[in-house]
């Protein structure tokens, strides 16, 4: 059995509502002004026995981090961090205290926001099935050229908005899906997301009419630790 660690936070001055983890309620393991969010007696081998158990554990990890993040700033860890002994956690906090505190200071009152850009499908309006012969070939050629022009414009819009976002958010993390052609941008911004939701998001959508843009809720800053 291991002590599973979800993340680190400033030692809170008041009580937190600590959620249930994979099996039992999580606890805080403190060292001076910092603490680890821990679940005791977790079998790493057991949660990896089947894909179903592994998925449940991953979802539980994400849920715990999100519930605590809603209450306080947190340095979230990726799934799978565990220590054999409680003393090992304290030693880790002692050895890396300043590093963890520096990151927590940077993340104070900050949240991650994921902007998803979904490409709009080419709006084909030509009914080529109603024409024959040379007219059919001409219609198909025109349709192909229009589709190519549409896709070129779509790529140009993405490159323009990518540069604009990078200018305003130089630490933005970009991720492309080669299969679905969906683009995602991870931003670190103040927990008050009104600027993103009302001003910037509206501007980006105007600049990217060939893309559908959606904004996530506030997320733990996984991509910035």
Automatic annotation (TrEMBL):
InterPro entries: GvpL/GvpF. GO terms for cellular component: gas vesicle. Pfam families: GvpL_GvpF (PF06386). Its main location: other. GO terms for biological process: gas vesicle organization. This is Gas vesicle synthesis GvpLGvpF. Belongs to the gas vesicle GvpF/GvpL family. It is found in: Gas vesicle. Keywords: Gas vesicle.
């Amino acid at each position: 059995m291991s002590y599973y660690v979800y993340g680190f936070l400033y030692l809170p001055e008041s009580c937190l509502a600590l959620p249930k983890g994979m099996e039992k309620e999580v606890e805080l393991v403190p060292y001076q002004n910092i603490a680890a969010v821990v679940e005791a007696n977790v079998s790493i081998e057991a949660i990896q026995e089947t894909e179903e158990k592994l998925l449940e554990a991953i979802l539980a990890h994400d849920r715990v981090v999100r519930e605590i993040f809603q209450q306080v700033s947190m340095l979230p860890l990726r799934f799978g961090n565990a220590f054999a002994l409680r003393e090992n956690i304290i030693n880790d906090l002692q050895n890396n205290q300043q590093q963890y505190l520096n990151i927590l200071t940077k993340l104070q009152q900050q949240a991650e926001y994921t902007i998803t850009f979904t490409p709009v499908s080419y709006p084909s309006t030509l009914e080529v099935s109603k024409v024959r012969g040379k007219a059919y070939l001409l219609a198909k050629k025109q349709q192909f050229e229009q589709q190519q022009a549409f896709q070129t414009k779509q790529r140009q819009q993405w490159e323009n908005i990518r540069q604009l976002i990078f200018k305003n958010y130089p630490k933005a993390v970009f991720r492309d899906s080669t299969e679905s052609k969906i683009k995602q941008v991870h931003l670190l911004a103040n927990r008050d997301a009104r600027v993103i939701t009302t001003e910037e998001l509206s501007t980006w959508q105007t600049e990217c009419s060939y893309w559908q843009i959606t904004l996530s809720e506030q997320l733990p800053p996984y991509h910035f630790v």
